[in-house]
Specification:
about 100 residues; mainly beta; Immunoglobulin-like; five-stranded antiparallel sheet; four-stranded antiparallel sheet; 1 helix
């Protein structure tokens, strides 16, 4: 898992790339990025499957905010990202991922 942040100079936004390796998704056919930036919609941000079985997605987020997120596979398995900036408790799961101050 990896998260790459690219802060834009032209405006107060950050392009954030989320990546998952084939081992991390354990053969999933589809993976979705789910978080407070999309009202926790578990289908609005499908990640792109690569030829090697990895998944990635780049989205643009406004700077100066904190964002919570997780990944959901098509098999309804929820994954945390080991490279999240922090973790916060969640009433529905053991922990949400937390991407701080982009």
């Amino acid at each position: 898992m990896s998260i790459t942040k690219n802060f834009l100079k032209s405006r107060a936004a950050c392009k954030v790339k989320f990546s998952l390796s084939p081992d991390e998704v354990q053969g999933a056919a589809e993976v979705f990025l789910v978080g407070d930036f999309n009202d926790w919609s578990d289908t609005s941000h499908p990640m792109k499957k690569q030829k090697d079985g990895s998944f990635n997605l780049e989205i643009e987020l406004p700077q100066g905010q904190d964002y919570k997120f997780r990944y959901r596979t098509g098999d309804n398995i929820w994954l945390n990202d080991a490279n999240a900036d922090a973790y916060v408790p969640c009433a529905y799961a053991s922990a949400d991922n937390f991407l701080v101050k982009v």
